[in-house]
Amino acid sequence: MSIDRLRHWVSRAGTFVTDENGVVVMAHDGRLEYQAMPDAPVARMTERERVEHYRRESFPELRISHIGEQMRASEHWLAPALAQTFYAANGSGVPSLYDERTGLNSGLSAHIVHPLTSWPEISRNHSRRDRFLVFLTMLGVVTLAIVIATSYSRERRLHRATRDLAEQLQSANTLLSAEARHDALTGALSRRYFLDTLRHEVELARSVGMPLSVAIADLDHFKQINDRFGHASGDRALEHFVEVCRAQLRPSDAIGRLGGEEFGILLPQTALADAQAMLERLRKRFHHEHCAHLPEDAALSVSIGITELASDDAPEWILSRADLALYEAKSRGRDRSEVRPADPASPARHPENSLAGR
């Protein structure tokens, strides 16, 4: 995984990324790195496993705890629904909004802790208001108009502060959702979002009666590139392939990373013969266009399996045929594309296993 590609995940204050063992591997605040989430799997690793994996033995715990009930105990005016969103980070006295998105890529999880710096002012305003209302009530009916005016003004301030809290949480959710839609290394669509896009394109193509071609591309001898030049060079090769696809394909087309060095390509409104011609140009360009970030003797090539949507197709069956065409391209020597039209009379299929096993 390219470290440089993780930096956009932690570009905002309070953001950090953990690996599959719950260890902070990158954070906006560098002091959080190599701290561990509560009950993280790293705590169950042996000392030797920690040293081999991280070159260190101990990992301070990153304390993130829910404090809604404690805050309601002292701030009785706080609504239960709002209190449920409040957390404390590393013992800080300032409450924070916290959210997490898991399964983004390579076992990574993105987190955001947004301190509510305006909370002390909100709390003070409520305390002053309560005391002031009691005092004004004792003064009687004569000062009731002043009480109403003051209460209305302060309620407006509270409403604005509450609205700001909701907007901050919505902004954090939007940021994490956008990260989940794209592969962190290459910028291609994530596997899940690519499959959702495929289902949408199948329904659209069937409703308007337009063709749809689907391909699966797999970089040839990718393990040899990693073994010979290092995993960083392998990352550059994957990025280079996506860059070539974006330069060669149309804006309406889509490319997603299905896993490892395997990519899915959607070509809406494209018949099978046109799709093969288009992807042949892409394959040749990728083979002949040297990646500037790789050594001169690093040769890259890709094998591509192509198929087309049939009238009775499900998305799972299309990917299965494209996968068979890719296998044929690999079997015939790699660095080539092969097509596999839909069978006139398809045998019994089991679509429930096709996407689940990919």
Widest sheet, order of strands: 2-1-6-5-4-3
Q: With helices defined by DSSP (H or I, 4 residues minimum), what is the helix count?
A: 10
What distance separates the N and C termini? 20 Å
Q: Tell me the count of domains.
A: 2
Computed CA radius of gyration, to the nearest angstrom = 28 Å
Largest sheet: number of strands, sense, barrel closure: 6 strands, antiparallel
Low-confidence stretches: 345-354
Fold and architecture overview:
- The protein starts with 14 loop residues before the first strand and ends in a 19-residue tail after the last strand.
- Helix content is about 45%, strand content about 15%.
- The chain has a 6-stranded antiparallel sheet.
- It has helices spanning about 45-55, 70-75, 80-85, 120-140, 145-180, 190-210, 220-230, 230-250, 270-290, 315-330; strands spanning about 15-20, 25, 65, 85-90, 95-100, 110-115, 210-220, 255-260, 260-270, 300-310, 335-340.
- The chain folds into 2 domains: about 5-180, no CATH class; about 190-355, Reverse transcriptase/Diguanylate cyclase domain (Alpha-Beta Plaits), CATH 3.30.70.
- The longest helix has about 35 residues, at about 145-180.
- With about 350 residues, the chain is of the alpha+beta class.
- The radius of gyration is 28 Å and the shape is elongated.
- It is built from 10 helices and 11 strands.
Quick structural gist:
The chain is α+β, with helices and mostly antiparallel strands.
List keywords for this structure.
five-stranded mixed sheet; six-stranded antiparallel sheet; elongated
